[in-house]
Write a structure and sequence with these properties.
This protein has no helices and ten strands. The chain is an all-beta fold and 157 residues long. The strands form three sheets. Strands 3, 5, 6, 7, 8 and 10 form a six-stranded antiparallel β-sheet that branches.
Length: 157
């Protein structure tokens, strides 16, 4: 697991974006899983301003996870900061489990830091992050990094 001020969760080795509803040519969805907090995924300006926006990631193999992380863009801009979200997981990419139906990042406008959202442990190969509402209500969504938190070893508990 990688942990820093800007990143927490499983290292995104072998991960790939398998679906995204919108991405700016200069800020592709793959930037949200590249492990680099200075790059961002951002939806296209003016073209796709209707929320929700979502990104689906294949982690390459099944993982036991117990939460996710969202790192807002770190360039000082508040464009596309996600306030309300949904998070889903899947073993096969076809049938989805909703782990967080409608969560909210409190005070993200004033504190655009790494957000960690725990949930009950699940097995998953795929995850889907959906931006339901963002700061400013302009229809943009963005993320510097989106990752998942590994479940602690459940042996002996």
């Amino acid at each position: 697991m990688v942990t820093s001020k800007y990143f927490a969760g499983l290292a995104p080795i072998g991960w790939k974006v398998v679906s995204v509803d919108s991405e700016d040519a200069n800020s592709p969805a793959s930037n949200a899983i590249d492990g680099n907090p200075s790059t961002i995924w951002q939806t296209r300006l003016n073209a796709d301003l209707a929320l929700p926006h979502q990104i689906t990631v294949d982690m390459g193999s099944a993982q036991r996870i117990a939460g996710f992380t969202y790192l807002p863009r770190q360039d000082g801009s508040q464009q596309g900061l996600v306030e309300n979200y949904r998070f889903e997981t899947s073993v096969d990419g076809r049938e989805w489990i909703t782990d967080v139906d409608s969560g909210r990042f409190g005070n993200i406008q004033n504190n655009p830091e790494l957000q960690e959202v725990p949930f009950a442990p699940v097995n998953a190969r795929f995850f889907r992050f959906t931006a339901l509402k963002e700061i400013g209500a302009n229809g943009l969504s963005s993320a510097a990094e989106i990752s998942v938190l590994p479940a602690e070893s459940e042996a002996g508990h």
